[in-house]
Each structure stands twice: as structure tokens, then as C-alpha cells.
What we know:
Order of helices and strands: HEHEHEHHEEEEE
Number of strands: 8
Strand order of the largest sheet: 1-2-3
Amino acid sequence: MQVTGLWEPGPQITAEEWAHFAERDFPAALSGADAVVLSGSLPPGVPQDAYATLLNRAAALGVPGVLDADGAALQAGLAGRPALVKPNAEEAERATGAQDPAEAAARLCALGAAAAVVTAGPDGLFGRTADGFAWHTPRRGGCPAIRPERATPRPPHWSGRSPKDAPGRRPPPTPPRSPRRRWPRHWPGSTTRRSTPNSASRPGPAGRTDPSGPATPLMNAN
């Protein structure tokens, strides 16, 4: 599979436009926000410390910021003390000089990030927090991408509502219901039938029963 990526510079931004955005538009956009993500390259005319400025304004409003940038924008943005910074291994190396992703994550936290996650492709991701907690999540080797022609169709009995109903496994059988008691259609040797409210219009033959009413004799025993 081939992927073509196109990266072009943004429009030229004037100093007045940047000041209006940073002082008015950006704080207004954070109203009611739980977090803000600042990512990508900066357009021409925007200062290199733009991400740090925006992160500081977000922190003043109680909104944590996530930074995903590269080069000088990433280095300057760390001064804004983002809650999380997430570069890839190459971007982290350019910002910190460390080739080891784990060491790069530690240096990003030392430069101001509260937490850093460095993605390293097939090597997984390396995380670090400012208080010294570190982790490594390797790539799952047993979960390759499923090709459409090899995709297993979902069995018709799978509901997908729990792991127990996963494809290839049938759900547990339903407990059988208690059988309902039914009146026999004929009582051997009996000369009675069961009467109903409309038994006069729906008489039954002698020796048969009607399941909707009490039994009444058809003839006297003597």
C-alpha cells in the first residue's frame, strides 16, 4: 500500500490577526472545553512561541493542553508546560537530542511537559511523567491488519454483546421452560364434558372435554 502525504505552508498571518486570535478568539473557544489539542506546524507570521502562549492562556482558564508539534515550535511550546506532549521518535530526537525514545520522553518532561508519550512505530510507545513514572507499551504482534478477502464473517448466532459471544463461540443454551399442564381431550370412560359460558352455542360431544370451564354431568348416574 502506498500513501502520498501533502504538507503545505499555511496562509500568511499578520501581527494584528495573531493578536486578535490569541487574546479573544482562542479564550472564547475554550469556554466549556475539557481539553485543547495544539498540533501541526505554525503558519507564516505566527511567532515561534505561539504554542507556549496559547498553553499558558488555556492553563489560566483551567483547560489542560496537549501539544503535538515538531522542531522549534515543539521546543518553544514546552515552555507553556503542556499537560501532555506526543511527538514521534524522530520529532522527539530533534527536540531533545536523545535517540532512545524512553530517554527522549524523560527529557521532554524535564523541559516542562507534565507527561510525554513518544511513539516509535513497531517498537510501540514510551511514556513518562514529570514525577518519574515510566512505561512502555509494545506493539501487539498478534493483531495484524485483517485483509478484506480474509476477513471471517460474523456467525449468525453471535450477538456481540459480550466476550463470551465472540465469533466461534455459541452463547449458553436457554434453560427449558416448564411445560404447561393441559387437559386431555378425552377422559376414558367419562360421560362428562367441561362447560363454558357459551357452551349452549358450542356443545361438545359426550366423552370429550372443553378446557375452558368446570366439569358438569351430562346425565345422572342413576
